Structures are given as C-alpha cells and as structure tokens.
Amino acid sequence: MPYNEPESSLEMDERIALLKMRLKRPLPGKAFQYQMANAARQPVSQQPIPESASSSAVMILLYPKNGEHHLLLIERAERSVDRHSGQISFPGGKLEASDVDLAHCATRETREETGVAVKTTQIIGQLTDMYIPVSNFKVTPFLAYSTQPLLFQIAQNEVRAIIEAPLRLLQDPETIKIKDIWVNEKLTLRYVPYYDVFGKTVWGATAMIISEFLELLRT
C-alpha cells in the first residue's frame, strides 16, 4: 500500500486482531532485538539479566491518526539525573512501590509523561524483556492500542516533545540508517543502526524494541 494512502478502519481493526492472535505464539525474541543493536551492545545483550537490575516497563501504544496507525514516542528532556537524557524512547519508567505490577507501571508512567490514560484492558500483550546496562534496568515492553486519536499533556520536566511515528514509516526499509553516535566526551559508538523518524534518531533499546514489534507484524 502506498505510504500516503490511508488505511480503512477495518484494516486497522484486522491488524489488532492479528496481533492478539500472534501474541499467543512464542515471541520473535532477542534475535530480532539484536538487529537494531550496535556491535558493542550485542555481547552484553546476550548475557543473562543480572539479579541486581531494577525492574521497569515501557508502553508500545498503537493508535489511529490520519487514517493509519501510529506509535507513541517521546523525546526526553535534558536532565542530568537521566542517563537517557535527550533520547527518543517509549513512555515508561521504573517500577515503584505503589505499582500493582509492571503493567500498572507502564500505564502510570504513560499517563504521567504524556497525559494519555491507557487502561489495562487496552493492553494486549508484552514483548521480550531487555537489559539496559548503562542504567542497570530490566525493561518489560507492553503492547496496547487505542481506537481513538490521542490528546497529550506532557510533563515538561521529563518530556521535551511528543513524536507520533506512522507505523508504515517504521516499516519502510529506507527508514533504517547507520551512523556514529556521540554519547559523551569519552564514548562515541560506531556504526549504530537507527530509525530516522522525521529527522529524529531512534536508536538503542527503543530501536531494538521496535525491531521485535515489527517482526510480530511481519509474522
């Protein structure tokens, strides 16, 4: 389907129905996460997640806009306390004592960061857990959907901007590019794969999660 041709509501409903069915089978797993990992990350990614890792959760939220599905991403605000400051990510964060479980953590963080209230009934499954060495987090990605376009009220101390990524843009092979990424004055990562979303660089754990999610759609 051409990128500029809108989908019908039936086609979008069918995608959600197929995803629900696909999630009953084994997940694509780390092999498809690795496809968007830089070379230095992969040996670490293949190690067991350490018991000392803090639990966290993110929300992969599918929703309609302009006749096609989008994914909700955020550009994180510049904060010295955030090791992922300024990066593009899914809404989410660390499991707190007040959270009933990780799914509740993902919905709470999404509401706090973006103003979008996702009900647990909208969650249709979860993807493969991932370990992020730099912050020592074990991340559980949850997949949810909305049948309505979203309205945002961002937490400006945490979120610089909302990025609404069209699903078909992410599915376009031309969206995947490679470049060196400067992390700090002591570290530049070489030949890092990323998704170019309207000029924004989506890399690291977020890109790896997207890669596994797109494989769910392909299968």
The SS-based structural class is alpha+beta
Shape: globular
Terminal-residue CA separation: 18 Å
Number of helices: 6
At a glance:
Helices cover 26% and strands 33% of the residues.
Question: Topology, pairings included?
Answer:
Elements: H1 9-22, H2 30-34, H3 42-45, E1 54-65, E2 68-76, E3 88-89, E4 92-94, H4 102-114, E5 123-126, E6 130-132, E7 137-145, E8 159-166, H5 167-171, E9 176-184, E10 187-197, E11 200-202, H6 204-218
Parallel strand pairs: 1-7
Antiparallel strand pairs: 1-2, 1-4, 2-3, 2-8, 5-7, 6-7, 9-10, 10-11
Report on this model:
- The protein has 219 residues and is an alpha+beta fold.
- It contains six helices and eleven strands.
- It has helices at residues 9-22, 30-34, 42-45, 102-114, 167-171, 204-218; strands at 54-65, 68-76, 88-89, 92-94, 123-126, 130-132, 137-145, 159-166, 176-184, 187-197, 200-202.
- Strands 1, 2, 3, 4, 5, 6, 7 and 8 form an eight-stranded mixed sheet that branches. A three-stranded antiparallel sheet has the order 9-10-11.
- Strand 10 (187-197) and strand 11 form a beta hairpin.
- The chain starts with 8 loop residues before the first helix and ends with a helix.
- The model has no long low-confidence stretch (mean pLDDT 90).
